[in-house]
Amino acid sequence: MADTSVAHAHETHADAQQNGSAWDGAKEPFKASYGKLMMWYFLLSDAFTFAGFLIAYGALRFSTPTWPEADFVFSSFPFVEGHLPLVFVTFMTFVLIFSSVTMVRAVQEGHRENQRGVVFWMFLTILGGITFLASQAYEWTTLIAKEHMTVSVNPFSRHVADGIYLNPDGTEMRNPDGSIKTFSKGDNYLLHKHNGEFDIPLVKYTTGEYAGQVMEAGFGPKAFGALFFFITGFHGFHVFSGVVILSIIMINAASGIYAARRNGYEMVEKVGLYWHFVDLVWVFVFLVFYLL
Amino acid sequence: MAGHQTYEEQKALVFRGLMILGVITIVEVLIALLAKGHLVESIRFTEGFGHYLYMLLMIGFSLYKAYFIVFYFMHMAYEVKGLVLSVLLPMLLLVWAIIAFFQEGDSWGKRRELIRKKNEEMVKPASSKPQGLYRLPGATYYQG
Prior knowledge:
The structure holds 2 protein chains of 2 kinds.
Chain A lengths: L3 H16 L14 H29 L7 H4 L13 H25 L3 H32 L9 E3 L4 E4 L15 E2 L4 E3 L1 E3 L2 E3 L2 E4 L8 E3 L5 H34 L1 H5 L4 H26 L1
Antiparallel strand pairs in A: 1-4, 2-3, 2-7, 5-6, 7-8
Helix pairs in contact in A: 2-6, 2-8, 4-5, 4-8, 5-6, 6-8
Chain B lengths: L6 H29 L12 H26 L7 H8 L4 H28 L12 E4 L3 E4 L1
Antiparallel strand pairs in B: 1-2
């Protein structure tokens, strides 16, 4: 990148040292331009925000005796009936990995001052971002419209002990083959809605602290829904912002503004840093929500 | 910036990144499905030592993916040392945050459990008035 702008910056730097003024903006700390440096520090602060949210998730999860299991909650796939645990989120992860890779290509083409290459790879990156947002919209729609999870109502939970299901009149519920319907400790369940009301089954535990008592298998920890929508929503908002910013930079690149600057498409490099960060955060959202 | 690698090397890096991130993600998901008993009915790592091992493995894989993205996709590996340290060292504060807040969450859980137990406790009804005590208005006993 030994081009005219940097050479100019170094001249002013020498000038500033002579005049004793380091405040004219010519001195580049850490040999990185101000824009790039400030993008790094913005990302550092954003990393703390996300870390705060994810640590809050951990703290609240530690504070409740049960917590819904990800492979039970996230098991739907578009146009496919049945139980496909974690398959769709894996697809979403791959969408982000691919869009990160196309972003790296865009930055590389920028260093070579290849305008067509920059615009082409940025366009693919934007498509990746939009695909991810659409996938997230599907995931949210399934949870809200089909499974009735909201910010304050969480119908997903797990049994705290072994036991049997009871009918509303107190008799044992039976499977179609006549055997008693049982469950064991840690089994996942989802409350279903009938005519706008949640159907809360009666259970009788056979082990643990409540052995012998008839109880309701109620809602799961409320925090789960709030944390899920808030954290994935905040990440999705970052992706959305990224798509908007990438689009603006792509149009600028196509118009030739950055070619005229002759600084190796530094703007593309800066928005690239942001886009990789969005992928980086997803690595941890994926870890915390879907794997652990 | 681009001077440290040839164009061919750069394209090779992109392909290597795609492979590393993709393969690690697939391995992670397969291990997760295995650990939760979806692949083989009899194998499960949901409790005890196996579960801790599983979680450590997942965190390790994720940290490696994060390292790769930051150092190669975001070019941290080619930045000046001062920039690297000024971005990465503050992250160490998160170690404290994780320890402190998980401890805190555990404490909330214990306290909530204690309150629930106390709420469910049945108070024994007093069969008779305690001996040698006079009952005063306001339901307090006074030794006379």
